[in-house]
Amino acid sequence: MPDSADQAADVELAEALDRYLAALHAGDADHCHRWLAEHPHLRALAGCLDALGQFPSPQRTVSGGTTGGEGFDPGLEQTMIASRSTFESGSVANAPGVGEFGKYELVEEIGRGGMGVVFKARQRDLNRIVALKMILSNHLAGDDDVKRFYREARAAGSLRHPHIVGIHEVGQFNGQHYFAMDFISGTSLAGLTRSGPIDPEEAARCLVRVARAVQYLHEHGIVHRDLKPSNILLDEARNPYVTDFGLARVFGDQDERTQSGTTLGTPGYMPPEQAAGKISDITCRSDVYSMGAILYEMLTGRPPFREDTPHRTILQVIHSEPTLPNRLNPRVRPELERICLKCLEKNPDRRYASAATLANDLDRYLRREPLEARAAGFTDHFRRWIRRESGLAARLAIMLAALLLMEAEHLLSHRPWSYHLEIKIAFVAWSILALVFQWFLRRPKTADFARIAWAITDPLLLLFVLSHAEDVGPILVGYPVIVTAAGLWFSVRLVATSTTACVLSYVALLAIRHEPTNQAHYPLIFVTALIVIGAIVGFQVHRVQTLSRYFDQAQPREPGQPGG
Questions:
Q1: Per-residue pLDDT for the chain (564 aa), expressed as one digit of tens each?
Q2: CB-based contacts of 304: which residues, under 8 Å, 6+ apart?
Q3: How far apart are CA 341 and CA 376, in angstroms?
Q4: Which long-range contacts does 531-535 make (Cβ < 8 Å, 24+ apart)?
Q5: How is the chain split into domains, by residue range?
Q6: Which residue, 103, 210, 373, 510, has most beta carbons within 10 Å?
């Protein structure tokens, strides 16, 4: 016979499990989380209760999964979100493999992303092939992920357009959230461009259809916010279909978050306002930018901006200009390049006013009629060149300003133009080297060499100028400027190289000029200041790199087919 202590323990255990079961049935996820934190040794038993609670539940499906669709139960989403807590109790199931899934027969996996997986499936009752998208339960999707999943179903469920992937139903089976959509037998636009550029005329025809579909979205109060080649599916005849509305903004949706400071989307294809986290500034013209990025990749085989880390890509999106498509693919006609660059304008007001306007201009291009997009003038070309070659433009501006100031000083002093000719020659040589290094910098194989060579050459040329100058005082500021500028490349090694080169250059300057001074400790203070500046800049770069690695790991994998 068990003693009283054992009986009391059993009663206490039963009461604790009853409290958990009551919270589970009530859908009180917060109470379940607190209970698990208080009783970590009971996670296994809680997992059994979760499984028992899910097993007898019949399959629930809803046709027309959208706020305005027929039969959509608004409470279903909250039920799904509440039941999400069952996956966090230790009873974590993997996404189902190929086999049976309710009334669906899973044929094969066709896509996988950070939080979702897509299967090709056969719906047995209607004997049709569909694409079945579901949340990866072993990813422990949070409430926001589940809300995003159902927001995607609501956004696309009632849309009926020949170039938008339609959704048939949304629901759950044994606690697994899913929705069924059209199956597109073919590939994605990303799969097509992976092998290189496609024919410019075919690219224009493809984007016309995409733009018409996006205009249909906008007319129904939806901004996609994640248009990219992997979200454009192509059938066997290469007809495009827009899919994946997980980040879509539905105007009037109470669950929509529009606060600033959150970056959503894929860095290489998002507009500057989205890359900067200004979510409330995203409008229909933001999708126009993304379509311009898609057109750019179709024409060149690469996105407009693609760096080795997401944060570098985002900075390029916000501040830089892409390489002209015609430089990467000479077959691109100037008119089509003009359309592409108008879509990629940093200022939304300079882009096409709507997706329909973009489609109309593409139609004019295909008919060889005059475009709405005007040819860029000198000011536009110069503005884009400065953004595209910002490092080179800054150096050339500094050289030109130095030469002009020097010449003005000579004129005021009535000195001949040949005075300090060697310094003027040094500035010209400095500018020529900047052009050479910028040429190497554009090529991935020589980019690292160009940065290191630039970091070493700048202090050497500054040494030459200072060694021939009459008064070095004001010009010494060039050393800390060079060290600080090295941080713009976001490389700790480059900052260290630049700092070392500047310190050695300054020490060499002291040896060359060998000027007597009553303040012998001043040079030591200046060298110490250079080292401190280099350490501060390097530390800041290291912090940004750490955040970038975290951001990179948080990004979902890019699937061949949409899986997340």
A1: 445 566 666 667 777 777 766 666 555 566 666 767 777 777 666 666 555 544 333 443 443 333 333 333 443 333 333 333 333 333 333 445 567 888 999 999 888 765 678 999 999 988 999 999 888 654 455 666 777 777 777 777 778 899 999 888 888 887 788 889 999 988 999 999 999 999 999 999 999 999 999 999 999 989 998 999 999 999 999 999 999 887 777 765 545 544 444 556 788 999 999 988 888 889 999 999 999 999 999 999 999 998 877 778 888 899 889 999 999 999 999 999 999 999 999 999 999 999 999 999 999 999 999 998 877 778 888 888 888 887 788 778 877 877 787 778 777 877 777 777 888 888 888 888 888 988 888 887 888 889 899 899 999 988 988 888 877 777 788 899 899 988 878 889 999 999 999 999 999 999 988 776 667 788 999 999 999 999 999 999 888 888 777 666 555 444 433 334
A2: 268, 292, 293, 296, 297, 317, 322, 344
A3: 10
A4: 531/499, 531/503, 533/480, 533/483, 533/484, 533/499, 534/483, 534/495, 534/496, 534/498, 534/499, 534/502, 535/499
A5: 60-182, 187-385, 389-554
A6: 210
Active-site residue among 145, 226, 244, 287? 226
- For 187-385, which CATH class? mainly alpha
Does the annotation count 226 as an active-site position?
A: yes
Q: Examine domains 60-182 and 187-385 and report if their fold is the same.
A: no
Return the H-helix or E-strand segment holding 117.
Answer: strand 116-123
- Quote the pTM value: 0.71
Burial class of 551 by CB neighbour count within 10 A (0 to 12, 13 to 18, 19+): middle
- CATH class of segment(s) 60-182: alpha beta
Q: What single-letter amino acid sits at 391?
A: G
